[in-house]
Write a structure and sequence with these properties.
Length: 227
């Protein structure tokens, strides 16, 4: 009788342990945390923050899919505290757009230095974001509604276009970007822009009052700053 009772207790305890384990993240896979959009090749377009946590580490693969694009567009991702994309070896494009101008974003930095294949970077409405490290192969960069005051473009020899809207950017050195064709700066704090080393420039848009230095054949447009 005692042996039967012991067996019952043993089975009950095992069942309880299994139930507890199933309730934690030990059985949560990357496919549970990350969503791959089947309409866009190899694109990660969703993250379950409840399962992944607020300090996100994006894997190189989700299931059998090698991630080459990341497209996160929703105020929901304002909950993210940190975002690590260093493992995404084949990342070609990255888009993070939170939409709401007054979101409660906590993301302070992004590091793309290890993403050797990354060409396109689009970031919008991430007010807490102050620091970005770019990879050397970046060709197109779009930043809107960040708190980035300085950007380092010196190693981006392939940069084709650069856009910066609605933020405190104070200076911009594009002397090492000979392939730059378009530059768009609106509602920033840049006083001087030297374009003497950018022979391919076709379009320059800057705020009223910005002094442009150097000869250029580019079309120049001055933006009236808004508060």
């Amino acid at each position: 009788m005692k042996r039967a009772n012991f067996k019952t207790i043993y089975v009950t305890v095992i069942c309880l342990i299994i139930t507890l384990l199933c309730g934690c993240n030990l059985f949560v896979t990357d496919k549970d945390k990350f969503y791959i959009d089947e309409t866009i090749d190899d694109c990660l377009s969703g993250i379950d923050i409840e399962k992944a946590g607020k300090d996100i580490v994006i894997p190189a693969k989700v299931g059998d899919t090698t991630v080459s694009k990341i497209y996160l567009a929703d105020p929901y991702y304002s909950q993210i505290d940190s975002l690590d994309v260093s493992h995404v070896e084949y990342l070609e494009s990255f888009k993070l757009v939170l939409y709401a101008e007054k979101n409660k974003s906590k993301l302070k930095k992004l590091d793309f230095s290890k993403n050797k294949k990354l060409r396109l970077i689009v970031i919008g409405q991430t007010k807490a974001l102050k620091n970005i490290k770019f990879n050397n192969k970046s060709e197109s960069i779009f930043l809107k509604g960040t708190s980035v005051k300085k950007v380092d473009l010196k190693k981006l020899g392939n940069l084709d276009d650069f856009s910066y809207f609605d933020g405190p950017l104070e200076e911009l050195d594009i002397s090492n970007n000979p392939n730059l064709e378009e530059i768009w700066i609106k509602n920033a704090n840049i006083k001087v822009l030297d374009v003497s080393k950018n022979p391919k420039l076709r379009i320059i848009t800057v705020d009223e009052g910005t002094k442009i230095i150097g000869p250029t054949n580019a079309q120049i447009e001055y933006n009236k700053k808004t508060e």
